């Protein structure tokens, strides 16, 4: 009985240690190419990912009808507030077919103020990147390649996530996000 308890406690300690050492997102061994993705701003202007070359981008593909997406959106807004600037931006790309009004209402309802409103009503972006669920988030480097991917929700404004992203930003842009 003691041996079984010892083994169980050992397994729990090893799993806890492994989780503590894991980064919030797993970086790819090599940056991956991303196909061209086009989308619109809430005011109707056309954009594509090349518009952010030279910066680190956290591209979050989401929808207002997705409960986990709805839950994480305020954390993305706070992340943009903390790290957003000339070296980093969160792009929350909605694939809502109902249009910009639904997304704008959701932003107002949840207090999202720092994220710009981007929309891909066709949903083509999630298909192009090979997304298998929502939310799907890509960490994109300054050359436009995928550095990491996370399928599913996250708490984007935790101290661990902020520290991880600050390290990635510094490594890929050669500059820290804060003095």
Q: For the record, what is the CATH homologous superfamily label?
A: Glutaredoxin
- CATH architecture assignment name: 3-Layer(aba) Sandwich
Characterize the biggest β-sheet: 8 strands, mixed
Q: From the alpha carbons, calculate the radius of gyration and give it in angstroms.
A: 18 Å
Written account of the structure:
This is TlpA family protein disulfide reductase. Keywords: Redox-active center. This protein has 179 residues and is of the alpha+beta class. The protein has one domain (27-173): Glutaredoxin (3-Layer(aba) Sandwich), CATH 3.40.30. Helix content is 38%, strand content 22%. Strand 5, helix 3 (100-110) and strand 6 form a beta-alpha-beta unit. It is globular and about 40 Å long. Residues 3-21 have low confidence and may be disordered.
Sequence-ordered SSE layout with sheet pairings:
Layout: H1 2-21, E1 27-32, E2 38-41, E3 46-48, E4 56-62, H2 67-83, E5 88-94, H3 100-110, E6 118-119, H4 124-128, E7 136-140, E8 146-151, H5 159-173
Parallel strand pairs: 4-5, 5-6
Antiparallel strand pairs: 1-8, 2-3, 2-6, 4-7, 7-8
Summarize the structure.
By secondary structure, the chain is of the alpha+beta class. 38% of the residues lie in helices and 22% in strands.
What descriptors fit this protein?
alpha+beta, 179 residues, single chain, disordered N terminus, Glutaredoxin
